[in-house]
Amino acid sequence: MKITVFAAGSRGDIQPCVVLGQGLKRAGYQVRLAAPEDFGDFVQAHDLDFYPLRGDVQQIMASDTGRQFMETGGANPLKSIGAIRQMIAPVIQQMAADAYAACEDAQALICLGVFAAFGQAIAEALDIPIIHVEPTPLLPTGAFPAPSWPIQRDLGRWHNYFSGLAMLEVVWLWYRPFVNAFRRSLGLAGVTAVQFISALKATPMISAYSPRLIPHPPDWPDHLHITGYLFLDSYADWQPSAELRAFLAAGDPPVYIGFGSMAGRNPEKLAQLTLDALALSGQRGLLLTGWGGLQTARVPDNVFVLDAAPHAWLFPRMAAVVHHGGAGTTAEGLRAGVPSIIVPFVLDQPFWGARIKALGLGPDPIPQKQLTAERLAAAIRRAVSDSAMRQRARVLGTAVQAEDGVDKAIECIKRYLGEPVIAKREAY
Q1: Is residue 320 within 8 Å of residue 340, measured between CB atoms?
Q2: What is residue 425's predicted lDDT score, i.e. its pLDDT?
Q3: Burial class for 341, CB neighbours closer than 10 Å (0-12, 13-18, 19+)
Q4: DSSP assignment string, 41-97
């Protein structure tokens, strides 16, 4: 069976789909990953067939519009509608058309859930089954507030469920003009928000996060499967530089600080703030610049600067990890078994910060707008000195390490698509 996996977004969105694609390939399926063209080297390095989608996501996020959205666009869901539309307008129609082309000879589609409206159109036009995969909860529930909802306090089941419906409406409004134009280009009728949400609820979904962090709520359907994280472990043989090894050996475990693509419009200011916080906390630090462009001119001897390194290797060697709260980075922090300090910028990041706080795995999240060197220093001091918090992080880390999200996800997919016919396997 030929399966196309359609994903777009940041590295945190693409990477779980790479892991899933590898698992499907090992199980005997023929797999193609359709993702933005700037991820081509990453996908092909993991031995997957790659279909490039036009549109450079990293360039969009690094633009003035993208950086402004990181700082302001995610706090208000209504304001996010215009910001998202402005960012994706130049590329989304081309990307959707390319995703369709990547599926023309496929027998099934696995689609990143946040792009469900486009995936549903492709599956409908080609008359093939579709399964969603998502690293962050999408469906409404009374159990907790929806990711990206501005109030991340549990105000009761009705509030929580309403927040989920409201955020699905917002997601629909991000894409509505583009989705229905795309559907018309495929000869399909346009759809409404109600139809979009109904289709999303009716479609099987692989929820790629730990059931220990988010147990299956009773108001979610049985065809939503919380499998555990889809971790990428292809960097097991990664070797650090001699300088990094020497730095780690020279003192106590440092505190990791990195914000991925979320540096905002003033990366120099953010970098200096983190250096000031480390100085106030009295801790050694490891600063990862990331593709958001976190800038450092001069750093003290007790801080080491890296452009990039696998989180799976770095995080277990840290005293605590400070990051933006992206789903993938949060997962690696949990697996490492060290406290996390979340500095959320946009979208689902405040949600993950709230989950970390609720389970006692880190201090209160510090929204990026409220970040000061003093607040960050206080959070760092607590994370490295609170023995109960550190023990909870270790226990959960051990549990997450024992999960096998990939195998569980493949089992679920087989249930819906059937076993691959390995004897007749051909090149994709």
Answers
A1: yes
A2: 47
A3: buried
A4: HHHHTTT-EEEEES--HHHHHHSHHHHHIIIIITTSHHHHHHHHHHHHTTTHHHHHH
Nearest residue to 259 via CA among 286, 279, 289, 284: 289
∠ CA 10-224-349, nearest 5°, is 35
Q: Which fold does the domain 2-229+403-424 belong to in CATH?
A: Rossmann fold (3.40.50)
Q: What is the pLDDT at residue 317?
A: 96
Backbone angles phi, psi at 33, to 5 degrees: -105, 115
The string of DSSP letters for 324-390 reads: ---HHHHHHHHHHTS-EEE---STTHHHHHHHHHHTTSSS----GGG--HHHHHHHHHHHHH-HHHH
Domain 242-402: CATH class, spelled out: alpha beta
Ordered by start, the domain boundaries in the chain are 2-229+403-424, 242-402
Half-sphere exposure of 86 (CA within 13 A, CB side): 14
Same fold, 2-229+403-424 and 242-402: yes
Q: In what order do the strands lie in the sheet with 224-226?
A: 49-53, 30-36, 2-6, 108-112, 130-134, 205-207, 224-226
Consecutive 10-residue averages of pLDDT for the chain (428 residues): 93 91 96 94 93 79 67 70 85 94 97 95 98 96 94 94 96 94 96 95 96 96 97 82 94 92 69 92 90 61 89 95 94 96 91 95 94 96 97 97 96 94 55
